[in-house]
Amino acid sequence: MSFIESLTLALALTYSISLLYWSGKKWGALASGLLVSGAIISSFYWPLIAALAIAVVIMAIAAKWQPEVAQGELRANNLRESVKHMLALSMLLVGVQFVVNSALLKAGITPWLMRPDVGDAFLPIAGGIELKAIMTLGIWDKNHPAAAVMLTVVLLTGLLCKRAFCGWACPLGLAGEYLYKLRKRFIKQELLPPAWIDWPLRMLKYLLLLALLYIIIGMPTMSIPGYLNSNYHKIADLKMALFFVTPGLVTIICFGIILGLAAWRRQGFCRYICPYGALLGILSFLSPFKIRRNTQHCLIDAKGMSCDKCTRACPASISVHKKINIRSDECQACMRCISACPKNEALQFSTRNGWKLSARGLTIMLLTIMFLLPLVAYLGGFWHSETPVEARMYLIQHLDKIGH
Ligand code: SF4
Ligand code: SF4
Hints:
The chain has 3 domains: 1-73; 75-283 and 361-401, no CATH class; 290-354, Alpha-Beta Plaits (2-Layer Sandwich). The protein is 65% helix and 2% strand. The protein has helices at 3-22, 26-42, 46-65, 67-70, 76-106, 124-137, 145-161, 164-168, 171-186, 195-218, 224-228, 231-234, 236-245, 249-264, 268-272, 275-284, 299-303, 309-313, 336-340, 359-379, 389-397; strands spanning 290-293, 325-326, 347-350. Bound molecules: iron/sulfur cluster (2 copies). One iron/sulfur cluster (SF4) binds at residues 293, 298-300, 307-310, 320-321, 340-343, 346-347. One iron/sulfur cluster (SF4) is lined by residues 291, 313-314, 316, 318, 320, 326, 331-337.
């Protein structure tokens, strides 16, 4: 685990524990703090231990400088934006680390900056094949074990808290938001397509997901060990990077369409193209937490007034004010509708039996899933790639010649 990964992990877990503490769950925070610190210290891995010390100091300072947070007055929009930007910044640093590591390998120099294993999160097919290998053959991949871990993380978030990963964590979603805002500077009006175009476009991401699942499920079980030991798999991350930095004409056209969709409408990429979004959309139907409108408090039913502030705030164009439970696969649990609602109790992110999850609770849940699992995987030896540096250095020199 590189220092940037260690620091992000320590910061995220320390922040979750601080949120727990600030919300009055002091014993829970103490128990979690002891558990996480014990796990990190027992790793005897200095970057993790140093990162934990830095994270604790940062949180102690943050408590003084963020009276709003310390007093419990958290606004969902502020919290979501800061979580998203911090995660995007860490992914950017991870990207720089990956590029420097690869450039040194390509130049034939033993890298002084280690490869960030978390980058394997961008290998969903490899992750799917690895999960299949674990379930059918009981084999753990040695080359990109983090791919299976990160895929499991994403699947778990979908099962527990809808598409909160898209709404609160995804750096690509954040980039799409900025692109959309840039477009709005020049062309002010919304360019929402009519429903008869919107619906088939939304199905595109499900088709892409089907194609990915076809590759994973279609691979014969007995071929999996061969694939996991192949040179192609050993450098799947470099192949992926090469695909992005040396795009062919078809790739450039695809990128153009993706960027165009993101700029055209809010969450255009997530809504129409992203197969991860499709996967999470399907899993989100199983999530116990949903946005629920309480008719006893909503101005429409309780007071007979006209109101659609929640619907107007929704980036996924869901008619929140007309529904009781939001089951839509497009809901990213962003809580913008809750923030926009003038009545405190009218909208909640809750289970059917009334267990509510605040923005703070959702942040704790999301960060815990996203970072505790990698920590456990790291401690169990299922995180760091065992591909020798010399093998990667040799393979990167022959990248073009290595196929499936
Ligand atoms: S329904 Fe609410 S939580 Fe879901 S996407 Fe719309 S604004 Fe976000
Ligand atoms: S914003 Fe609140 S009060 Fe208004 S319609 Fe939506 S849930 Fe009801």
